[in-house]
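R.M. (postdoc): so does anyone remember the format we settled on? I'll just put the structure tokens first.
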């Protein structure tokens, strides 16, 4: 989904001028080395000791500057038993993923509110159309691991629980009580789970 490159590569200079155009400026070609095109950041298992029992390690242009202008990136997603990657969407990319370990219920919801979902296991692949709300739930006995890939160097993620209940500043209570047809105390209770003061 990203624009096409206008040169072989443009290894991001993440610390260049405080200006970004559409992506990052290129580091001088004489400073580019082989290491710019390799990335070790997805080797390690992420820490899943958190509310959701999930850890997303992003391998986007911010951590892997060699991806700049190339329109592609990957994540590593680790799940504790029972862990969930909560409903979220990527504004700039379609996602595909392969299950490396365990068993995941993967689902996405169309703009017409139809859910497509399936339980997938080692070696199986899924695709999440660009921008649609999706999730993965670990339904196996042990840990699970998937590697996901995106047709953007920086797909972005709008994680619904955080976007709706833990934004800064907060969405007015009235929007949430009316929007979800719930009482004030439900909004407060959800907010408190994400460390937001009442
Ligand atoms: C999984 O949904 C991911 O965004 O990596
Ligand atoms: Mn995703």
């Amino acid at each position: 989904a990203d624009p096409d490159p206008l040169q072989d590569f443009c290894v991001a200079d993440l610390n260049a001028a405080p200006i970004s155009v559409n992506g990052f400026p290129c580091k001088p070609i004489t400073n580019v080395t082989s290491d710019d095109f390799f990335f070790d950041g997805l080797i390690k298992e992420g820490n899943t000791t958190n509310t959701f029992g999930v850890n997303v390690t992003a391998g986007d242009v911010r951590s892997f500057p060699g991806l700049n202008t190339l329109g592609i990136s990957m994540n590593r997603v680790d799940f504790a038993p029972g862990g969930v990657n909560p409903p979220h969407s990527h504004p700039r990319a379609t996602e595909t993923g392969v299950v490396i370990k365990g068993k995941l219920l993967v689902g996405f919801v169309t703009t017409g509110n139809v859910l497509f979902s399936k339980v997938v296991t080692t070696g199986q692949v899924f695709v999440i159309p660009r921008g649609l709300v999706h999730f993965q739930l670990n339904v196996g006995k042990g840990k699970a691991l998937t590697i996901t890939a995106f047709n953007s160097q920086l797909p972005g993620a709008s994680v619904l629980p955080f976007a709706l209940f833990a934004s800064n500043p907060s969405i007015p209570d009235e929007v949430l009580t009316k929007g979800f047809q719930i009482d004030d105390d439900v909004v407060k209770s959800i907010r408190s789970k994400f460390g937001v003061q009442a």
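R.M.: ...and that's the designed sequence above, right after the tokens. Also worth knowing: The pocket of glyoxylic acid (ligand 1) is lined by residues 56, 75, 77, 85, 95, 134, 136, 148, 157 (CB under 6 Å). DSSP finds three helices and ten strands in the chain.
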